[in-house]
Design goal:
Radius of gyration: 12 Å
Organism: candidate division WWE3 bacterium
Number of domains: 1
Protein name: PnuC protein
Shape: flat
Mean pLDDT: 97
Number of helices: 3
Number of strands: 0
Low-confidence stretches: none
Order of helices and strands: HHH
């Protein structure tokens, strides 16, 4: 799960660096994957909180692009 989330996170950063709106979509997906990983695997509240914030930023980024 963490490997998939990492690859999606890197892909989203790459797309955003190329100024492609779909990077925000991958960022949302990556945040969800990290939240699931944080809850189910490592039981880390800080990871979940961080990704809730990043999820919100990604939604805002997509909407205001």
């Amino acid at each position: 799960m963490d490997w998939i989330a990492m690859v999606v996170t890197l892909a989203s950063s790459y797309l955003l660096s190329k100024k492609l709106k779909w990077g925000w979509v991958l960022s949302v997906i990556a945040s969800v994957l990290w939240m699931v990983y944080g809850i189910w695997t490592i039981h880390s509240i800080p990871v979940v909180i961080l990704n809730v914030v990043l999820f919100t930023i990604a939604i805002r980024g997509f909407r205001t692009w």
